[in-house]
Amino acid sequence: MKVRSAYILVSHGSRDRRPQLAMAKLGQLLSDKLGVEVGTATLELGPLPLHAQICELANRAIAVGCKQLQVLPLFLLPGVHVMEDIPAAVALAQQALGNRMAIEIRPYLGSHGGLEQLLATQQQELLADAWILLSHGSRRVGGNQHVLEMASKLSAMAAYWSLRPSLESSIAELAAAGAASIGILPYFLFAGGITEAIAWRVRQLLFEFPTVQLQLGKPIEASVELADLILELT
């Protein structure tokens, strides 16, 4: 007999309402597909610490007969949040719940190879002759290997918003190599403060590199296609 599961999406958290709305939309898309409630929680800026948010959803799920809770990390890189913070919160929640609910952490979103196709679709729409995959970046050792691999698959140069190589240095390198049109693919899930800052910086860089056309793509965003990828990780 299959164990009845509940699900919770975990993201970083933001003061900007746009990621919150996108999370709610994604949760609803998954709920419609799974036929059960899909909760959402944040590591930071939530109403409660993450372990308490997990316990809150788990108790609701126990009340309707669920025996397992699947935690779905909505992170693109295996950084500190994925490798340390979420497991620590889950361990606290499991300790509080005891044997009333089994909690399982599923693979982080960025581990799904299907994200490549979502980014490749943007490439077809922008039609540049050189590409930059722009990620926030992780300071954890090995945390950016995934970005390098994804960039390679997309024939793009990897750049980082918070680390080196930066967006500016990557544009300069491609321009020096003769690129006339550069497409920038933001490797971010939802629109928010950082993606706005990126767009503002790109507008500045248009003046710094007047001979190069810069085209900025969109973050991945909540969609049926993204929900399908997440579903495959459950």
Helices and strands in order, then pairings?
Elements: E1 5-11, H1 17-34, E2 38-42, H2 50-63, E3 68-73, H3 80-97, E4 102-105, H4 115-126, E5 130-135, H5 145-153, E6 157-160, H6 167-176, E7 181-187, H7 193-208, E8 213-216, H8 224-232
Parallel strand pairs: 1-2, 1-3, 3-4, 5-6, 5-7, 7-8
Helix pairs in contact: 1-8, 2-3
Question: Brief description of this entry?
Answer:
The protein is built from eight helices and eight strands, in the order βαβαβαβαβαβαβαβα. With 234 residues, it is an alpha/beta fold. The protein folds into two domains: 5-110 and 222-232, 3-Layer(aba) Sandwich (Rossmann fold); 115-216, Rossmann fold (3-Layer(aba) Sandwich).
Question: Explain this structure to me?
Answer:
The protein has 234 residues and is of the alpha/beta class. Helices cover 45% and strands 18% of the residues. It has two domains: 5-110 and 222-232, 3-Layer(aba) Sandwich (Rossmann fold), CATH 3.40.50; 115-216, 3-Layer(aba) Sandwich (Rossmann fold). It has eight helices and eight strands; from the N terminus they run E-H-E-H-E-H-E-H-E-H-E-H-E-H-E-H. The chain has a four-stranded parallel sheet with strand order 2-1-3-4, with helices on both faces. Helix 1 packs across helix 8. The longest helix has 18 residues, at 17-34. The protein is elongated and about 60 Å long. The model has no long low-confidence stretch (mean pLDDT 95).
The largest beta-sheet arranges its strands as 2-1-3-4
Note the gap between the termini: 17 Å
**Unreliable parts:** none
State which percent range the strand residues make up: 15-25%
Q: How many domain regions?
A: 2
